[in-house]
Every structure is written in C-alpha cells, then in structure tokens.
Design goal:
By secondary structure, the chain is of the alpha/beta class. It has 6 helices and 19 strands. Helix 1 (16-27) runs parallel beside helix 2, helix 1 runs parallel beside helix 6 (287-310) and helix 4 (156-165) packs parallel to helix 5 (185-192). The radius of gyration is 21 Å and the shape is elongated. The chain binds NADP nicotinamide-adenine-dinucleotide phosphate. NADP nicotinamide-adenine-dinucleotide phosphate (NAP) binds next to helix 4.
Length: 311
C-alpha cells in the first residue's frame, strides 16, 4: 500500500460484510481498499461448515466461502490489504485512516469490523485461554480428541459447536444457566438426540481450574445452590458476541446495546461513514445478512460519492 494515498472508499474488516461491500464498491468502479484485519474472512472462517448460505446445497467450509468472496471482490478490482487499521479520524474530510503501513485518506468508509466472542470474566478464564479454554471449536477441536469436554452457553453457536466437537471428543456436556435452550429447534433436536452430547441445566460455572492445563470446573446449581467441582478435558465458551467498536474512539453513535447505530441507508451519524455486518447487527448475525448489509452499504456509499462529485 502506498502511504498517504487517497481513496474514494475504504472498507475496514474482511468478513462477509466487508468483502460483499468490496465487491459492490469495485463493480461501481470505486477501486475500494479493504483492510482484512487480524482474522481474515471474519468469524465465518471459524465455522466448519456453513449450511445456510444459499447457493451451496451441500454446505461450504467457512474458510472456502471466505476465499471465494475475496476472489470475486479482487476480480473486479478491490485492493485487499492484509493489514490492520490502528485509528480512524472522522473529524476532518477527507477522513484519515492510520494503519501499520502508514496513513491514508478516504472520502467514504464502511465499518465492517464484526464482533468478538463474549467473555465470562470468571477466575481461570483468561489464565487458561489457549490451555484448555477456547472460543473456537474449528480452531481447537483437534485437541479435544477422546476427552470429556464442556461447552458453556445455550444458543445456536453453543449447539452447533457441540455437534462439531463430537467428531473429536469422547463426550460433550453443554452447561446452560437455564432449563430451556435459546437455540433454534433444528439444532436442539440434533443435539438432544446425539449420543455424545449431554446437558447440565440451571448451572453456572464460577471458576475454571487446572495446573498446566484446564482440569476442572467449579460450578453451582442456580435452583438448589449446590456447588461442586467437575473434571473436564477442555471448556469452550459460546455466550454471544460484543461488537468491535473500540477503534471508533467515541466518534460514532452506538445504540443501547453498544452496536453501531445506522439508518436505513446503512449510514452512521457521520455522513460518508457507513456500517455493515455484525458491528451494526445484534439480531440476525448470519453470513447472508452480513453480506447483504455490506452490499447495501456499498450502494449507499456509491450514491454518497456521486453526490460529493456534483458539489
Ligand atoms: P446467543 O443467541 O446470544 O446465545 C448466547 C447463549 O449464552 C444464551 O443461551 C445465553 O443464555 C448464554 N449466556 C449469555 N451470557 C452468559 C453468561 N454470562 N453465563 C452463562 N451463559 C450465558 O448467542 P449465539 O449462540 O452466539 O448466537 C448469536 C446469533 O447468531 C443468534 O441470533 C443465532 O441465532 C445466530 N446463529 C445462528 C446459527 C445458525 O443459524 N446455524 C449459528 C450460530 C449463531 P440465556 O439463553 O439464558 O440468555
């Protein structure tokens, strides 16, 4: 990347929203630059098999779908930078974007930095991350071979990952704080009928314990109050996500849940700054909805830039 170069459209984030925006921006001849950040292809890359993205009746590996998104965007002229944005300045126009490789400027920006897994913030969680505590089954499933492992959470992600981890683990116990799952009916049915999957209901994990690696969980039953220690081979935490808004430095208005607030044109409180995907979506959080939001943001950015030229 050439430092100090000016661009019409800069997209931050290389998940489905970012690459769909890059594709639409490239086809509108805006020659967009997309910063992929640390996690190329976003959270989709950490999903083993994506079965609900239309056009792939047999499902497609998350990484493979990401590669196809990237190929398609670059075919039409999107410039992909495997670099990270360090800060954003929306006070003056054009906007300034500071990256590891230098500063660039842009007339419009699409924020597509996604969301990260939420943490439990209990003793042992940070200490044992990477040593038996994980937030990604696809990344760490292999290390659970023949172990009895635990999953915390009762949503779609928890059950999808529980099903995936049965490929390696001897048993997978889902620990949920209530007695009814949040996950959808299909995943619930699959998980409940899987011989390797068990459930611990109304249960909270208070502490993750071990020495070199995780070896036990300190839990309690919310109904009876009974506390006990149970052995575990690994623990996977899937309790939702938090949007990646720290880069915005308070310049962009957020909604009550802390997600970027956008209007019907995907525009933020700053004209010319748009947002797409999970950074602005606490509800749907699907590859297809993120990609759709990315396309919509790029179309709006195109209109915005056309109006700028006329001024
Ligand atoms: P989610 O739906 O927000 O579920 C989070 C789960 O974690 C809930 O069961 C919640 O319990 C539990 N939880 C939250 N905070 C907790 C805490 N501090 N301690 C213990 N448990 C806690 O998150 P998600 O499963 O990541 O799904 C997010 C979105 O993506 C959803 O809209 C989902 O439908 C979608 N998604 C869809 C698919 C698919 O269609 N195949 C796959 C993955 C995700 P409570 O239920 O008690 O609140």
């Amino acid at each position: 990347m050439e430092p100090n170069k000016h661009h019409q459209l800069v997209i931050i984030g290389g998940g489905p929203a970012g690459f769909a925006a890059a594709l639409y921006g490239a086809r509108a001849d805006l020659k967009p630059v997309i910063f992929s950040g640390m996690l190329l292809y976003g959270q989709a890359s950490q999903t083993d098999l994506i079965e609900n993205y239309p056009g792939f009746p047999e499902g497609i590996q998350g990484v493979e779908l990401g590669r196809l998104f990237e190929q398609q965007a670059s075919r039409f002229g999107a410039q992909i930078e495997y670099d990270q944005v360090l800060s954003l300045d929306f006070q003056d126009r054009p906007f300034t974007i500071q990256t590891y490789s230098g500063n660039i400027s842009a007339d419009s920006v699409i924020l597509a930095m996604g969301a990260d897994p939420k943490k439990l913030h209990i003793p042992g969680e940070a200490e044992f991350t990477g040593r038996g505590v994980s937030y990604c089954g696809t990344c760490d499933g292999f290390f659970t071979r023949d172990k009895d492992i635990h999953i915390i959470g009762g949503g779609d992600t928890a059950l999808e990952e529980a099903l995936f981890l049965t490929r390696f683990a001897r048993s997978v116990t889902v620990i949920h704080r209530r007695d009814a799952l949040r996950a959808g009916a299909i995943l619930e049915k699959r998980a409940r009928s899987h011989p390797k999957i068990h459930f611990l209901w109304n249960t909270i994990v208070d502490e993750i314990r071990g020495e070199e690696k995780v070896s036990a969980l300190q839990i309690h039953d919310v109904k009876t109050g009974e506390a006990r220690k149970i052995p575990t081979g690994a623990v996977f935490i899937f309790i939702g996500h938090s949007p990646n808004v720290s880069l915005l430095g308070g310049q962009i208005t957020l909604d009550d849940l802390g997600y970027v607030k956008i209007d019907a044109k995907m525009e933020t409180n700053i004209p010319g700054v748009f947002a797409a995907g999970e950074i602005a979506d606490p509800h749907y959080r699907q590859v297809i909805t993120s990609a759709g939001m990315g396309a919509a943001a790029a179309i709006s950015a195109t209109h915005y830039l056309e109006n700028l030229e006329r001024l």
